[in-house]
Amino acid sequence: MTDFVSSSHKCELAIPAGSLQCALYAFKGGADAVYLGMKSFSARKGAVNFSFEDVRKLKAYCASNGKKFYITLNTIVNDREMKEVIPILRQLEYIQPDGIIVQDLGIAKVMRKYFPSLPLHGSTQLAVHTINGVKELQNLGFSRVVLSRELSFDEIKEIREACPDVELKIFIHGALCYGFSGLCMASQCITGRSANRGACAQICRTWFSCKETDSDSWLFSMKDLCLGDLVKRYVEIGIDSMKVEGRMKGPDYAYWTARYYSLLLEGKEERDQEVQWAKEAMQVSFSRETTTGFFPTGKAGSTGSQNMVSSADPGHRGIQVGKIDKVLASKAIIRFTKPVAVRDGLKVVSGSQSASFSLSHIDGGKSFISEGETATINFPTSEFERKPGFGTPVYCISRHNLNMALLNENIPLFKRPVDITVEIKASSLSFNGFECQMEVQEAKNPSDLTSIFTKVLEASDKSYFTLGKLTVNNKSGIEHPFLPMSVLKQARRDFYDKLDNEFTETLDAMIPAIATNLPAAMANNDLPSRKELGLWGTIVEIGNERYLPLSPLMFNENQEMEKLDAHLKDNPNLIVGLNNIAQLLWAKRHPEASFFADVFLYTENSEAYSSLKSELPNLIGSYELDEDTPFNFVGDFKPPLFISRVCMRHHGLGLSCKDCSRNNTYHLEQNGHKYIASCKDCITVVQSCYSPVK
């Protein structure tokens, strides 16, 4: 055992599971936990996701194998949809997952009030990136917070030290979004598909043109995060859980990411042969170009920081296995640095062009190419306008021998244990008060009543329930009563039928308070048009009132709060717009001021607004994003497409940080639509030209 293992606390490794197969393979690879979505209200609608029966199987598996699982209900819902969430919460209350990952504050409020046994975990969609954000979620009953991907090691360490009594979860591997999770409106604005409702169209993986540089590229396509051995640093500072992104990916990805990171967390070194093999298999299953993200400084636009955008190609690259010597009419001569075989998938990226193909032919009739060997293979020359030149990298994106066989999903369904008290009387038998008539007689051959009832009640057939703790009270006056087995079995069937009927009826039962609330839109009648307020950071005077919408990003939290205190002192009647959960903690210190919930605090349903109002009595209204209707964002106001800590100038356009003014504007175009990108102090905000630009 290494010093790392012996001196560190246990940190959970959580792997994404888009299906039951993915979950089983994640556990086989060494995962401690998986996280998954149900068929509705999951931020990954495109994944297979889990039925109620699948989750019951997973619960049974986890209970038998000492594993954990978390359910994601991490989308924004409106009042109509809130009614549809209730049956799902009732199902989850029955199953009792290890946590429910939530973005919507309305869902969180309903869970606290009506489903208190379900642990609340804050989704990364809440954009929590400061100490105050974590503490406010604690105030709202959250026991675990998934921090934003955009934080450096030092920033996470600072949050950990300031918030020792709440569980923290961080991302360590997988796709990075260009915009802050929960703040990205690009998909909704351009396609009408909302990322906050699980339907992201991945606009950041598409092509944009820049007028100032006269260039076309994938300006916002982030490389994949891969922290590797750096995860041990997070264990040392007491992070509770590390998660891998990728619920849209398959069982092979789930297995190999679990295998790679579990080996590292066991104390093995990156250079270890077993670790290297797991890493290569993981990258072949799916990997873009990789980066350690914000780990070093958090300032992704700072001088000397690694480039985090893959502007030449947004797709899967796997691992490099060689370089081109020469391209022929339909073949290529390639120097291989790693072994490949017929039926492996290869890819070549040359400038802005790329082609993927199956290795189907090796000259000389060979089926395998060794490391260090030069070989002539089939090549899709016609797919390139210009032939790839000497030294162009060749990547392996699939291995014929890494295909995963289906694991057995014939897992017994979880049954909720019920403590049962059996009461025997002279003429009746009851289970938890559910009574059936029977004449009790003296047994000719005395037997143990507890053993009899245990055997009978454990056999609950297809019921949702089974025996938990058993208590037998014999009040019949007969020391050794005789109980006919046929009567016992019928009583058991009737009892479990009663429990099942009660359970299924509760799934459809509406909570009255949810059904009768007024629409959330009623909350913003007294506020001006959102378009009149501009973006954020500037005091706007409208009529006799002065408004100040706050930025949703506040990395220098203490400095920003001091500035806001000064603003309120100089403007006693200032009405402040809150755009991040962290700002609630500051606002509660100012009962003399008035506040409104701005667009990024999301009050899409009445319960969300009610939750904020109970925390902040001086909340005077909110702006609602009607995401059911494309482009209908609080009237004609269009929020930014992207709000990012990744400087587009440096990472997307590849321009040097040297002599940068730290305040640059670029004009972009895509499919005839024009956008403006503002890069200020390494923060990038991209807006439609139809939006107000500050």
Summary keywords:
flat; 4 domains; 18 helices; Elongation Factor Tu (Ef-tu), domain 3; alpha/beta; TIM Barrel; 694 residues
Q: Number of helical runs?
A: 18
Sketch the major β-sheet. 8 strands, parallel, barrel
Distance between the termini: 57 Å
Helix content: 25-40%
Portion of residues in beta strands equals 15-25%
CATH architectural category of the largest domain: Alpha-Beta Barrel
Helix/strand/pairing category: alpha/beta
Shape: flat
Number of domains: 4
The CATH topology of the largest domain, please?
A: TIM Barrel
Q: CATH homologous superfamily of the largest domain - what is it?
A: Aldolase class I
- Low-confidence segments: 627-633
CATH first level of the largest domain: Alpha Beta
Q: How many strand units? A: 35
CA radius of gyration? 29 Å
- Describe the strand arrangement of the main beta sheet, using strand numbers: 1-2-3-4-5-6-7-11
What quaternary form is this?
Answer: single chain
How is this structure best described in words?
It is a single chain. By secondary structure, the protein is α/β, with parallel strands linked by helices. It folds into 4 domains: 3-185 and 224-269, Aldolase class I (TIM Barrel, Alpha-Beta Barrel), CATH 3.20.20; 319-398, Beta Barrel (Elongation Factor Tu (Ef-tu), domain 3), CATH 2.40.30; 416-508, no CATH class; 516-688, no CATH class. Helices cover 27% and strands 24% of the residues. The protein contains 18 helices and 35 strands. The strands form 7 sheets. An 8-stranded parallel beta barrel has the order 1-2-3-4-5-6-7-11, surrounded by 5 helices. A 6-stranded antiparallel beta sheet has the order 9-8-33-34-35-32. Helix 6 (131-139) links the parallel strand 5 and strand 6 (144-146). The longest helix has 24 residues, at 485-508. The protein is flat, with a radius of gyration of 29 Å. The model is unreliable at 627-633 (pLDDT under 50).
